[in-house]
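Fold sample X.
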Amino acid sequence: MEDGTRVVHAGLPDPRQHEPLLPGPQFASIFHLSGDPTGHAGVYGRYGNPTWARWEAALGELEHGQVVSFASGMAAVAAVLMPRLGPGDVVFLPRDGYPAVRSLAGGLPGVEVRTAPMASLPDSFEGVKLVWLESPSNPGLDLCDIAATCSAAHAAGALVAVDNTLATPLGQRPLELGADFSMSSDSKHATGHSDLILGHVAVGDPVLAEELQAWRRTTGAVPGPFETWLAHRSLGTLDVRLERQCATALELAKLLAARSDVSGVRYLGLPDDPFHELAARQMHRFGSVVVFDVGGKERAEAFLDGCSLVAQATSFGGVHSSAERRARWAGNDVAEGFIRFSVGCETASDLLADVEGALDRSAG
C-alpha cells in the first residue's frame, strides 16, 4: 500500500454499521472500574484514552513502529532525554539543532553535553549514552547519514534518537535507518493547520514504548482527546499537502537561487544543494522549508512586511505559508538576514509572485 492511501486510512477502526468512519473524541477523566485494575487503558484519564490509541495507531502505521503521543513536541523530547540521563552520563546533541533541546539537556544535573554540527559529526561516540540527531537540521537544513551514524553510536553502546519533525514520517523513517527513537513535533506537518500543539515518539522496541508510557503517566504529559481527534482528522490530507508544498518549495528555491540579491539558498531538492545526494538516498521527499539570506536585518524585515500571502510566524508545516527572520531568536547561529520560509498550500504562481514582488520592493 502506498503512503497516500495508508495515511487516509491509518488508525481507522473496522467498519461498523451506522458508526462514523472516525469516532469522535472520548472525554473522560475516570472510567467504570470495579475490582482490581488490569492493564492501563480504561483505568484513569492519565493512563490512556481510546482517542489517543487511534491517533497513535495511525502514526505507528506511518512510522513503522509503536507510537506514544505527548502534549507537545518538547514533552516528547523530555520523555526521551530525562528518564535516560543522570549524573555522569554523556549526551550528544547537534550544535545547530533546535535550541530548546540543548537548553533542556544542559539543565539536567550532572549530565555532560557534547555537541558538533550536523554536517561534521564525530566518527566515534565512545562514552556517550544517548545520541540525539536532527536531520534535516532546523533551521540550516543540514543532514547526517542516519544509518551510518546509528551504526557508529550502537557500536559504542549508545541509543540514537532522531528529531524527524522537518522530514515527517512520509519523508523519512528513522526507525528503518537504525534509530531507536523517532521523535516529531506534531504541531507542524502532521496536523498541518497551525492550530494544535502535540508531539510523539515512535520506537521499534516494546520495552522502550513501555518506558515512554510510564514517563507520560508519571509526569502527566498527556495529550487531550479533542486535540488528538483533530490531529487524526487532519492526518488524512498529509500526503496531498506535502505533495503541493514540496513541489512549490522547489519552484521557490529555483526562483531565489536565480536572484543576485539573495544568497545562501538551501533546499534539499536543488541538485546543487550540498546534501542533495544524501537526501535523495535516505529521504522520500525533500520537504517544505526553504532557507535563504536577503542581506541584513532591515531588508529581511522589509521583505517579510511586503509579503501579503506569507504569515510572519515561528513554526512551519502549515497549509498557510509562513516565514521569519530566524536570528530574532537566541540560540540560532545564523546571519541577521537569514529567512526560514515554510511553503504552504497556496497556488504556486500566486505565492511565487508574492515573494518576488516583496523581494523587488525591499531591494530598494
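Fold sample Y, listed below.
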Amino acid sequence: MGLMMDAVGARSGKFGIKTKNVASLEALKGSLQSGRIEFVMLGDFYPSGDEYELVVHSHRPAHPAAGIPLQVGCVVNNVETLYNVHLAEQGIPVTRKFLSVCGAGPPAEVVLGSRGDVLPRSDRPGGRRTVEDFGAFVSGIMMGTLTFDLDEVVTKTTGGLIVLPARPLSDDPPHALAA
C-alpha cells in the first residue's frame, strides 16, 4: 500500500475490510508500518459498491454515475494489485493469477495466458469440480460474462469464476416448471 501511495503521491491510504472479516483486521493491525494508512470497515452486502464506499470514507465527494474514483482524487486498488506492486518493486515478474472460484469448482492459481482446464475435472486426482457439464460467469454475475468455453485465455483482468451446472444457464427451456 505504501509503494502505491508513493507512486501516486497520496498523503493517506484507507484499507477497506468487510465487517464480517473482523478477525482479519485484528491479524493485520500489527502489520501497519505507516501512520498514513488506516483500516476502514465496510458493510457486509453484495453487491455493495466497495469502491464507492471507500471513496466516501476518504471524505471525498462520491464519483459521478459511470465515473471513476480518479475523478475525485482517489485511486482504488484490490489486494492482488497491491501484492503485484510489491512483486514488481522486487523485480519479480507477475506471471500468475489467483482466481476466486465458487459454486461447483475448486479454488485455482493459474499462469497468466492459461487456456482450458482451469478447473480440474472431477474424475482426476485432486479434481473437485462437482459437475461435468457447466457454465461459468467470468469475473462475477453483475459485471462479468457467461461462458461455456473455458478455452478462453486467463488475463490480468480475469477476476474469478462462478461455476454452475450448464442446464439452468442454457437457452433451452426446462421441460417443466414448478412454483
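Sample Y note: Strands lie at 13-18, 37-42, 96-103, 108-111, 134-138, 145-147, 160-165.
Also: The helical segments are 2-8, 22-29, 50-57, 79-89, 166-169.
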